[in-house]
Amino acid sequence: MPPLSVKRDRLIGQLTDLVSINSVNPELVPEGAGEADIAVYVANTMDEMGLEVEVWEPEPGRPNVVGVLPGTGDGRSLMLNAHTDTVGGEGMNAPFNPRITNGQMYGRGTQDMKGSLAAQLAAVRALQAANVERAGDVIVAAVIDEEHKSRGTEAVVNRYDPDGAIVTEPTDLELVLSHKGFVWIDVETRGRAAHGSRPDEGIDANMHMGRVLARLDKLEQSLRTQDGHPIVGAPSLHAARIEGGTSSSVYAARCRLRVERRTVPGETASQAVEEVQTLLDALAAEDSQFDASCQYTFSRRPFEAAPGASIAEAVRATGGDVLGQPPPDAGQTFWTDAALLQAAGTETVVLGPVGGGLHTTEEWVDLDSVVHLANILARTAQQYCT
């Protein structure tokens, strides 16, 4: 059996192709191209590789693509997960025309996360070229919509039940075992519209929202002084979006605020909503004219790998072989699809390439790290899928 070896030039060529395809999430940018074109490319690539390919649309015109390299028996299955959507390219110089400088590729999606998708495909090619026999399946999932509501991986966990998963979000080749979740909470204050010259008749919903913001600021300061989680740190919140009023000379009848609360393992969405409701109740008790409510809108739970998870042990071992030392354990403040897989009963970790500029005008990925990632993924599949 030949040794496992990732073909660097082919991997970089594939990454160049992927970055060249506009796959901006249309939920974030109304004119975004979406994932249809990149799904065609990925599906064709998987088909040429001889994988068992499934394509379906969790959302109209936005296909998931999953390719399976079957094992020989009843061994453990491993899913490699990457999303195909990106944020917009506003302010970038030719976001879909990738360029390489000093071993780094620049362009939208290079690090987040087309470098990872290219590494996943290269890892499977390496397994095929070496004729590695595995009892378990290797599953490559190229999913939509991670940048918005993760409806791609949501759909995947309803169709596939792998034993282990590696979500290849960018981690600078650190082994992420925990990350934060989030909750979106909408707050509304209600006043009474009146002409700006009639303070005796008007009740200013915007002013009342100012009181809410002041209390939220105190809550945020309190949250950040907590001991928090040993890996991901303290929870947090911020005022994400606010709107109120209709005219300069009219007392605002309504003001609306979107709050994002970042949760740590052990916290729930209901706890986060209750914090805000308690704050509103206190303000109402101080002023009979204060009228406000809050409403849960959306949430994603935090992620925490199971202690002693065998997928984590496998990545540490193979990462040590590739990098010379095991990737360091870490936590992250951002959210990933790992939380969905873990919640579905799949032991999951996060490991991805080195880079920078996520969601900015200078996104890049280190190409050596993409090759390292591919080699780790191939060796992990060889070891884990027994």
Q: Gap between N and C termini, in Å? A: 17 Å
**CATH topology grouping of the largest domain:** Aminopeptidase
Biggest sheet architecture: 6 strands, mixed
Number of helices, where a helix is a run of at least 4 consecutive DSSP H or I residues: 9
Name the CATH homologous superfamily of the largest domain.
Answer: Zn peptidases
The neighbouring-strand order within the major sheet is 1-2-6-3-7-15
What is the CA-atom radius of gyration, in angstroms? 24 Å
How helix-rich are the residues, as a percent range?
25-40%
CATH top level of the largest domain is: Alpha Beta
- Low-pLDDT parts are none
Per the principal axes of the C-alpha atoms, what is the gross shape?
A: elongated
Overall number of domains: 2
Secondary-structure element sequence?
HHEEEEEHEHEEEHEEHEEHEHEEEH
Strand fraction band? 15-25%
Do you know the CATH architecture of the largest domain? Answer: 3-Layer(aba) Sandwich
What is the number of beta strands?
A: 17
